[in-house]
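Key result, reporting period 2: structure in, sequence out.
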């Protein structure tokens, strides 16, 4: 990345652009677009993702309980993905080889395999829509990420540079009724996401979702075998039901 040119553009770019109904900071859009372009040109990537999310409290339905999960994610080409999750609600593996998607429970030693589209993003859409399987922070990998933010939110602002654990980042916020999204993007050569925070004010008690990226590795060639699921000894095949519509 041409750091000096990038910083010069940030200084000289018009600060805000307005429409009748929206307030969109063009510096924020510039940073988001560049991040999306870099992600779109990656041949492969891997990263660690730590998340915390508020879930309805079992004992008090007007309150939330914060749950934590760690993910190891590997994506390669347009049709390979591996996700290993440890935390709420258990140890799980998600395997996608371009033809099928498998969810494996390490705790219960059972698995489900279904046919899947031959593209990672199409697979994510399909599996989420039909079965309610969530893929944390997957939005960053969609080419339409910036346009989707502009369409979905009323205000988008660049909040300046912030330092997180010794790393300089660009902080961006997107705001609409009952929701505030904050994104921190690393100010380094690649400019990849470092942190995501979603605050939802739509219920009696505000809920939060936070995701922190670390240990990014890019354009490493991973063996195709790691994306194929081989049932461990004694594991059971179980069915998965579509989520209620």
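The corresponding designed sequence is given below.
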């Amino acid at each position: 990345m041409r750091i000096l040119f990038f910083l010069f553009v940030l200084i000289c770019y018009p600060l805000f652009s307005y429409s009748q109904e929206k307030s969109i900071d063009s510096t924020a859009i510039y940073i988001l677009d560049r991040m999306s372009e870099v992600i779109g040109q990656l041949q492969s990537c891997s990263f660690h993702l730590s998340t915390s999310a508020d879930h309805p409290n079992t004992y008090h339905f007007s309150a939330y309980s914060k749950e934590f999960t760690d993910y190891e994610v590997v994506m390669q080409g347009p049709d390979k993905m591996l996700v290993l999750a440890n935390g709420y609600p258990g140890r799980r593996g998600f395997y996608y080889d371009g033809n099928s998607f498998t969810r494996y429970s390490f705790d219960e030693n059972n698995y489900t395999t279904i046919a899947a589209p031959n593209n990672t993003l199409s697979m994510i859409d399909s599996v989420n829509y039909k079965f309610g399987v969530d893929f944390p922070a997957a939005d960053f990998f969609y080419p339409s990420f910036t346009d989707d933010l502009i369409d979905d939110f009323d205000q988008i602002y660049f909040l300046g540079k912030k330092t997180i654990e010794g790393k300089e980042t660009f902080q961006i916020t997107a705001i609409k009724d009952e929701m505030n999204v904050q994104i921190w993007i690393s100010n380094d050569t690649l400019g990849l996401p470092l942190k995501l925070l979603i605050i939802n004010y739509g219920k009696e008690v505000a809920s939060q979702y936070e995701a922190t990226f670390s240990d990014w590795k890019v354009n490493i060639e991973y063996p195709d075998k790691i994306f194929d699921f081989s049932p461990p000894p004694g594991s059971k095949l179980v069915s998965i039901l579509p989520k209620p519509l």
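Residues 3-237 form a domain with the outer membrane lipoprotein receptor (LolB), chain A fold (CATH 2.50.20.10). Residues 26-40 form the longest helix (15 residues). This case is discussed further under Risks and Mitigation.
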